[in-house]
Design a protein that fits this description.
By secondary structure, the chain is of the alpha/beta class. It is 27% helix and 20% strand.
């Protein structure tokens, strides 16, 4: 990924990323992004907290091979949308289907990468230990055959997955000694080790330096050739050249069949502004990055 004389603090810094042949859960109907079998389907979904409407009549379809970015303002419903897809919340109205079934029943086939790692900073856990936390265990965590510890095949699988994210050389390093970008790569490996059909990210670059953000999006782009990815992100510039499609959410949701941010989507996120407003110039800049013309300025 980087030349030897300019190693990135996010990667382990040992040359090009080599991704073994993936062994993710097979999905029928794979093909070009947006043309495969539906992986996520939301139809007429609404949700509120204490009578405050957060999402209203949302429709969303994600297909095999998509690398979808979901963007929107704080409080616009992005995190609620992620929780609905994970089955952690139930909609007030409408239906949510993941891999053709109720989200709760398909959780083992979904790899989730949260915004922050829920690991105590001083806890003496290694990089490989963190990845092993993502192993799906038949019979549950406390099954007689599997407790305590992990079998050799599970440890080997964790190491192979670390190779996929260029972190295998740091397998025995303590997790709390890593940079923010390196930690995020390890969390990606934790999500991948169970061979998911879908990867779901919530603000994956929130604690990463600019160079690390580019490296992480390069990684996700390479993985998207083998697995469907949905990402909630504020980092539009880093993501813009790598995603295959985009959806804007701010209580309502508008989905584009491509990576273009349409004028209607920009209006949903930012509203309309006078031509003299500084935000109007910012919106026009975002429009040029994503290939849209921007919302109409008020006269």
């Amino acid at each position: 990924m980087h030349s030897p004389d300019h190693s990135c603090p996010t990667c382990s810094g040992h040359g090009p990323l080599l991704i073994p042949e993936p062994r993710f859960r097979p999905m029928p109907g794979t093909g070009a992004p947006g043309t495969g079998t539906p992986v996520i389907e939301l139809s007429g979904v609404s949700f509120d907290y204490d009578d405050r409407e957060v999402l209203s009549d949302v429709d969303l379809t994600v297909r095999t091979g998509d690398f979808l970015a979901i963007i929107g303002p704080n409080g616009g419903g992005k995190t609620t949308l992620v929780k609905l897809i994970l089955g952690l919340l139930s909609p007030k109205a409408g239906t949510v289907r993941v891999l053709g079934a109720d989200p709760l029943s398909t959780q083992p086939a979904v790899g989730y990468v949260p915004q922050h790692a829920l690991i105590q900073p001083s806890f003496p856990v290694t990089v490989r230990d963190v990845v092993l936390l993502g192993v799906r265990r038949g019979g549950g965590l406390l099954s007689a055959r599997r407790w305590p510890g992990y079998v050799a095949s599970e440890k080997q699988k964790a190491l192979e997955t670390l190779h996929m994210v260029d972190m295998a050389d740091l397998a025995e390093r303590r997790f709390d000694a890593l940079s923010g970008g390196q930690k995020q790569r390890v969390l990606v490996a934790r999500a991948l080790v169970s061979d998911p059909a879908l990867l779901l990210f919530d603000e994956p670059t929130s604690n990463i330096d600019p160079q690390g953000k580019v490296c992480l999006f390069d990684l996700l782009s390479s993985l998207s050739s083998a697995i469907t990815i949905v990402m909630v992100s504020h980092d539009l510039i880093s993501a813009s050249t790598r995603i295959s499609s985009v959806a804007a959410v701010n209580r309502k949701l508008i989905q584009s069949g491509s990576r273009e941010l349409t004028p209607t989507m920009l209006e949903l996120i930012y509203g309309t502004h006078d031509a003299s407003c500084p935000l109007d110039d910012y919106i026009k800049g975002m429009s040029s990055i994503f290939g849209a013309h921007g919302p109409r300025s008020k006269a």
